[in-house]
Design a protein that fits this description.
The complex is a heterodimer. Chain A contains ten helices and twelve strands. Chain A is of the alpha/beta class. By secondary structure, chain B is mainly alpha-helical. The chains are: A alpha/beta, B mainly alpha.
Amino acid sequence: MKKLIILCTVLMLALSCKKEQANEAPKVAVVISTLNNPWFVFLAETAASNAQKLGYDAKIFDSQNNPATESDHFENLISAGFDAILFNPTDADGSVANILKAKAAGVPVFCMDREVNADDAATCQILSDNYSGCVELGIDFVKTMKETGKYVEIIGLVGDNNTWARSNGFHSVVDKFPGLKMVAQQSGDFDRNKAMEVLETILQANPDIDAVFCGNDAMALGAFQALQAAGKADIIKVFGFDGADEVVAKIEEGKIMATGMQHPEVMAEYAARYAHEYFTGRREFPQRIPVEVELVTKSNADQFIKK
Amino acid sequence: MKKETLKKFQSLLALLILCVLISILTDKFLSASNLWNVLRQISVNVCISVGMTLVVLMAGIDLSVGSILAFTSAVCAGLLTQGIAFESMDLYIGFTWVGAIVVALIAGLLLGLFNGFVITKFDIPPFVATLAMLTMARGATMLYTGGIPIANLGEKFERLGSGWLLGIPIPVWITLTVVGAGIFLSRKTNFGKYVYAIGGNEKAAFLSGINTKFVKLMVYGISGITAAIGGVLVTARLNSAQPNAGTSYELDAIAAVVIGGTSLSGGVGTITGTVIGAAIIGVLNNGLVLLNVSPFWQQVIKGLVILLAVIIDKKSKK
């Protein structure tokens, strides 16, 4: 019992400390779908550091790809008195309810990268256009392949909406060319090891393929590794998506053909700046702001190499 | 003894039937290069499963192996690329690939021993203790890597994952060594007998003078080491450490153990059985991709096969 009282006192003290801080500067929460992927770690940290640069207290919350965990975070954030949420949703439909909760409590939500299927929930959605990005990539794919050849597609997690936005964008172009034949479509779970193992096996069934399209760059690197081990890295062309440093370097060396460069730093910057403008009185924001995905090929890879 | 051999035969038979089925459906399966692929691909799961078998034989469970794998992988890669720097003392320690591997294995051992310590000292169910380690080791991995993969670990280290020795891939050699050590430990040593005894009846084992706490502690330590060996193998194969490596590998290992005929209530089972169990999973993964089965269906089929294998095993025991 004594211990319990002490614990409660400590907790209350800790909580009251937090309250006092709140009066000094608005608090910004960054709720990110997952920290299990370097791309999202970068998005979250850039958003938080941008908010801090603008003078706000910023904290990162990891939803672990689980809308239920995300829901808990939102409830806690609202009751802890956070003033804005920079949000990377776990699910296009499942996250809407969470945003509405925040809206009802008067906390603005700025979505980054992933879209939610609602027009009146988030204050603003700053989105990476995965579909159009992969349309661009598909056009380059068709050109590089000279409209003929057999290829393999390694898609990401089958339950993830980005997986299908990318795949559909790619196929919206490539399927129009009957000379391009997809001989296998398998999942690599966005994982380098899984993609490598899957391609090793696919190569056994289809040793004569000409290209591999991967739904992200981690899988493109895994695919490249499998091709290298099989001595086919020079013959079979690899395409990725994301714009990871390692892939951009390989594109410049001519080992990987192309990738779609996303701009997490731009999305993070927008979200933080809009939160700032909200605090200073702005209320009207466009519902959707698409952030362009740039095609990276050998001809322009040097511009994307980080020095 | 006769029953034991019969049971081993049972899972081996299941594996053969599966192989025959797949080779009827596709002629790509029975090629030397494909079979080497399968062996290379199951090597990580087999290593982890050897440790897991010992744990399950004691009626325990180790859910932390996937996270320990990721942590040791990160430590190994981090030491290779960055070493350890003590900036305040202007001291820098670099690591050769052997040194990095040794430290990674020690890290795995310590995490495993910590599991064993918590379980024996505080009498906490293994499920809970190792579940806590699953989260902690994953978090530690994220802290150490900052959530970003560590790449380009050098040619010598990469050879460990993709090289060949005397016509056999190096990861397969490593796995064979681990399996051999596991079989020797479980069959030929007193320690192995104690493990079976504890799984059969812990109280009886204790009363007959076995230091059950010590044996448990060591078995969780061994499971940590085998997970770390798996970690080194994954790192070498990818020539990089991925912070999210090994996610749900504990489930693959448990599946291999169970398909291989080891009872989750302890005391019954063999490491050879587990190796066959892992081979069944590996062959199935390989076959489904060779046949270009939709990824949605693959999960359903894998679940069904696990169920079927266990049902057959249960029936044959009666």
